[in-house]
Design a protein that fits this description.
Blueprint (H helix, E strand, L loop, with lengths): L10 E8 L18 E10 L2 E10 L2 E9 L5 E7 H20 L13 E9 L2 E10 L2 E10 L6 E6 L3 H15 L14 E5 L2 E10 L2 E10 L2 E8 L3 H17 L41
Length: 291
């Protein structure tokens, strides 16, 4: 796409849609054949251009696609890993400060190549060239992406007056979706179910921007309650349950109508056998901290 400059028009921001909150990692632009899931998108109208910032996810993790659509309908795009997007966000602040320090455009005082300020970002096999330029139509930030192993160069051009708005939109997405980029787990265990008397217990594994968790739900007629246990607490949670199971098994049978050890099933949590911790003798200390 040609380098369209920045005039004196203002800019506006609209539309934010958030989807599912799962996963994180790095994006490999060579994996174009993968199934992608869109997590969120922002659309910016800056002068005559529209920019779409899409947070996407594939089996390798999360990334941001920046697409520029010009007034003539032509489209160009670049891809940023979340860590690269964060670095780009910081550069946008520096470029905006520099742009604010410039005086009005002066056609007699423009560098031969039109470049007013330049920076470069390197991420794995990708390089990004950031050039604040000026031409007869105004000032703009050109962002070019190249791949060291070959392939065409892709680029977008952001009108200089829209750099702050672009930065703020990028910051919103990063605040929502940037997390430990190596924590994403694409294959989570399936949920399981246990029936006890008139109750149903559901064990569901989920994932959001804070990591993997287990939601344990107790469901009865017209009643539902649930707890959420973060993955880092599972071993401690398991140890506490196992300790109580061992203590119940070691208790001598009272011979009466108590819960007794005979109610302990030998199967896993998907069994429909009663569990010793969901009967009537569950007056345990609920203040245990899971860390």
């Amino acid at each position: 796409m040609s380098d369209l400059g920045s005039g004196d028009e203002g800019s506006s921001s609209q539309k934010y849609h958030q989807g599912m909150e799962q996963g994180s990692s790095e994006y490999d632009p060579g994996q174009q054949g993968q199934v992608e899931q869109e997590l969120a998108t922002k659309m910016l109208q800056i002068q005559s251009k529209r920019f779409y910032l899409d947070v996407k996810q594939n089996r390798r993790g999360r990334f941001i696609k920046v697409a520029e659509i010009g007034a003539d309908g032509r489209r160009s795009q670049i891809f940023l890993a979340l860590s690269t997007a964060a670095e780009f966000r910081d550069h946008l602040s520096a470029f905006s400060d520099f742009y604010s320090s410039l005086g009005p455009p002066n056609p007699d005082n423009v560098p031969e190549d039109g470049k007013l300020k330049s920076e470069m970002m390197i991420k794995d096999n990708r390089r990004y060239y950031l050039d604040l330029k000026e031409n007869s139509r105004g000032r703009f930030l050109r962002v070019s992406q190249t791949i060291t192993r070959g392939g065409p160069r892709s680029q977008v051009a952001i009108p200089a007056q829209g750099m702050i708005e672009f930065r703020d939109a990028l910051t919103d997405l990063l605040d929502e979706f940037s997390t430990d980029e190596h924590a994403y787990k694409p294959d989570l265990p399936e949920g399981r179910h246990m029936h006890v008397d008139n109750k149903n217990f559901y064990f569901d594994i989920g994932q959001n921007n804070r990591g993997v968790y287990m939601r344990i739900s107790e469901v009865k007629t017209n009643f539902r309650t649930a707890i959420t246990v973060p993955e880092k607490s599972w071993p401690r949670f398991r140890d506490i349950l196992a300790d109580y199971c061992d203590k119940i098994k070691q208790q001598p049978s009272t011979g009466g109508g108590g819960t007794g050890a005979s109610n302990v099933g030998g199967g896993g949590i998907s069994s429909d056998q009663p569990h010793p911790l969901v009967g009537n003798n569950t007056q345990q200390d609920t203040g245990t901290s899971l860390k």
